[in-house]
Amino acid sequence: MSEATGDKASRPLSPHLMHWRPHLTMVVSISHRITGSAMYVGVLIIAGWAAALASGPDAFEQYRALLGSPLGKLVQIGLTFCVFFHLANGLRYLGWDLGKGFEKRTADTTATAVVAFAAVMTILLWVIAGMRGLL
Amino acid sequence: MASYRTPLGRVRGLGSAKHGVGHFIGQRVSAVALIVLVLWGVYSALVLAGADFASASAWMRSPWHAVPLALFVGVALYHARLGIQIVIEDYIHKPLTRNALLILNVFVAWLGAAIGVFSILKVAFGGGAL
């Protein structure tokens, strides 16, 4: 019996990016982490918006100009996709927690649905924004 | 080779810290809350998009907006803190960097929540500029 002193070589390692050929469910899985990390910044942008509003008209106008700049809009479009992707895939994972949807075919179908939903909702939302003259 | 360490000394510090289940449940309960808060947030973002100072302030003075927005910022940062903790633990292996990032994660989440909620309440209660 080996001593329990943290002998790393003998401990099990779960498969990671280097061991997998890219496939849909894996790309969706890592994208869940990427979109989640991006939205951490997104919530801080919203907190910053509230802080700018609390700081008065000048600070708020500067913040508004920043959000309205081409880069600001690009970030917002990206975050819109992140929100809908993470929301839909999060529901998929909550289903998994209930033991539902684990079959290979089902997992592939729901993964496709998540990507399609996120893409459609992002386009829809920015078409609405565009129609309101915000783009 | 014989070891002079006691069996207890060899296992101490290994295994569960007994915090895993709380983390797992907290992540999922906040996820359920965020389903509602995020859908409300997306709708509100569409309503507020491009709003000037006066209309954004007027929007924030309603408790029907200030309360859910404060909840959203708090719950989202709690959920994000838990999620990023896992990402750091999975990908950063150097102990010093890893611990520094884990602590930074907690600080950033709390700082963001404090600034966000304070600012929301300040506008909601109708104070002047800072």
The assigned structural class of chain B equals: mainly alpha
Number of E-type strands of chain B: 0
Can you tell me the residue ranges of chain B where pLDDT is under 50 for at least 5 consecutive residues? none
Q: How much strand of chain B? A: under 5%
Could you tell me the number of beta strands of chain A? 0
What is the residue-mean pLDDT of chain A, rounded to a whole number? 90
Oligomer: heterodimer
The tally of helices of chain B reads 5
Amino-to-carboxy terminus distance of chain A? 66 Å
What percent strand of chain A? under 5%
Helix content of chain B: over 70%
Radius of gyration of chain A: 21 Å
**Number of distinct helices of chain A:** 4
**Sheet of most strands of chain A:** none
Main β sheet profile of chain B: none
Give an account of the 3D structure:
- The complex is a heterodimer of chains A (about 140) and B (about 130).
- Chain A has about 140 residues and is mainly α.
- Helix content of chain A is about 75%, strand content about 0%.
- Chain A is built from four helices and no strands.
- Chain A has helices at about 25-55, 55-70, 70-95, 105-130.
- In chain A, helix 1 packs antiparallel against helix 2 (about 55-70), helix 1 crosses helix 3 and helix 3 packs antiparallel against helix 4.
- Chain B has about 130 residues and is mostly helical.
- Helix content of chain B is about 80%, strand content about 0%.
- Chain B has five helices and no strands.
- Chain B has helices at about 5-10, 20-50, 55-60, 65-90, 95-125.
- In chain B, helix 4 runs antiparallel to helix 5.
- The mean pLDDT of chain B is about 90.
- The interface between A and B is large, with 37 and 43 residues.
